[in-house]
Design goal:
The chain is of the alpha+beta class. The termini are far apart. It has five helices and ten strands. The strands form two sheets. The protein has a five-stranded mixed beta barrel. The protein has a two-stranded antiparallel ribbon with strand order 6-7. It has a single domain, classed as Rossmann fold (3-Layer(aba) Sandwich), CATH 3.40.50.300.
């Protein structure tokens, strides 16, 4: 799907559009992409999790599988533009269902967890980037700040959620919450904005 011969231009595929100077390794053609990360079907939504090497994407992936979510592919994520949607899949058929766990090796998820733990393809709904826990220091200075932006993937706007990692943070639960929250926003209900508006209205009424 993605050929080295067609690697005609490079850019940051899943970079925040407001911070496009950051570079990640990826390959692109006119209607397909490849990016390092791990892709899952979570609550029937295609989710790509990205982050620096060694940040713990595969370990998080195992926990998501253990919670009943389905692996699309690990390490190299392939996507193709079909009818204005990005369809995620494994770039090579021989790699379907395998995850690399450092210190253990390549693990056959279908063999150890059952074929129901695998998903051949799914539409890309959002990208989650695992970032340093220091990002929380910024959020703590502004409790209303959200680490949410969007990325342009082959002309399709995709939500990007930054998830700070750190001790005592239950990442699988937080990933599930992000997917639910993103789906709710897509349907028109943003609980964050709703709460702020209701609080503002209450304060405004109290001043009258």
């Amino acid at each position: 799907m993605v050929s080295d011969l067609n690697n005609s231009y490079q850019n940051d595929l899943f970079a925040d559009t407001n911070h496009s100077k950051r570079k990640l390794e990826w390959k692109s053609t006119q209607d397909s992409i490849a990016h390092h990360g791990i892709a899952f079907e979570i609550f029937n939504h295609g989710v790509v999790i990205i982050g620096k090497s060694g940040v713990g994407k595969s370990e998080l992936g195992l926990e998501l599988i253990d919670r009943g979510h389905r692996l699309i592919c690990d390490d190299l994520v392939s996507g193709q533009l079909i009818n204005h949607e990005i369809m995620l899949s494994a770039p090579q058929s021989f790699g379907i269902g395998f995850m690399e766990i450092r210190g253990i090796g390549f693990v056959d998820i279908g063999h150890f967890y059952g074929m129901q733990a695998l998903c051949q393809q799914q539409k890309l709904a959002l990208v989650i980037e695992l970032v340093d826990n220091s990002m929380l220091d910024i959020v703590n200075q502004n409790r209303l700040m959200q680490l949410i932006s969007e990325v342009d993937v082959l002309g399709v706007k995709i939500p990007l959620y930054k998830l700070p990692i750190g001790a005592n943070r239950n990442l699988p639960v937080l990933v599930e919450l992000i997917v639910k929250y993103a789906a709710s926003r897509e349907m028109g209900y943003d609980s964050h904005n709703f709460f702020i508006e209701e609080q503002f209205n209450m304060i405004k009424q109290g001043d009258n």
